[in-house]
Amino acid sequence: MKSYNVKEIAEMLNTNPETVRRWIRDKKLDATIVSKKGGHIVYEAALREFLNSSPKYASIAKASLAGAAVGAAVLPTVMIGGLIAQKLIDEEQLKKAQISNKDVINFLRREIKKYEEAIKIKEDTIHQLQKQIQDDQLQIAEFQKLIDKLSAVKEDKYE
Q1: Most exposed among 6, 92, 94, 97, judged by the fewest C-beta atoms under 10 Å?
Q2: Residue range 117-130: average pLDDT?
């Protein structure tokens, strides 16, 4: 998983490193401290979450990430997938990055498999919930029968 240090984020967002540190202190940006000397690192997922909640910096970051993609000779497959998914680069930029179609196809196939597995888990959960709903509906019907019987007995008793 890609990570960034405070300086890299500050450069990417065209802001002061102290501003980035303030975001971290204020819990606006999730970071991990590597060491007192090494400082904070921010994982890509946390940075994206911050950017989604801060529109002011989102366009700057997208431009920086896209520029980094074009400048790289070969990008890691995970980065490519993230960029494609985010629509941060276009077809021409992919060509310039010298990424093979085979790598992209393999990445996309792995992503499809992950989504298919997630769907299967969700379908199983839905099936379990539907079964629980049916059981609850049967229980409600049984309770209603008891209410009806008790109501009938009570009426007979007072008549």
Answers
A1: 92
A2: 91
Give the Cβ contact number of residue 7 at 10 Å: 11
For residue 86, how many other CB atoms are within 10 A of its CB? 12
Name the pLDDT band for 6 (thresholds 50, 70, 90): very high
Residues 41 and 46: their CA atoms lie apart, in Å, by 10
- pTM, whole model, 2 decimals? 0.40
Contacts of 5 (CB under 8 A, 6+ apart): 39, 40, 41, 42
DSSP string covering 74-142, please?
S--HHHHHHHHHHT-S-HHHHHHTT--HHHHHHHHHHHHHHHHHHHHHHHHHHHHHHHHHHHHHHHHHH
Strand, helix or coil for residue 34: strand
Sorted by sequence, the CB contacts under 8 Å of residue 45 that are 6+ apart come out as: 1
Question: Are residues 75 and 69 in contact, defined by beta-carbon separation less than 8 angstroms?
Answer: yes
Q: How far apart are CA 144 and CA 141, in angstroms?
A: 5
Q: Of the given ranges (45-49, 75-79, 109-113, 121-125), which has the lowest mean pLDDT?
A: 75-79
Q: Which two tokens stand for residue 26?
A: 């204020």
Q: Measured between alpha carbons, how far is 49 from 57 in angstroms, rounded to an integer?
A: 12
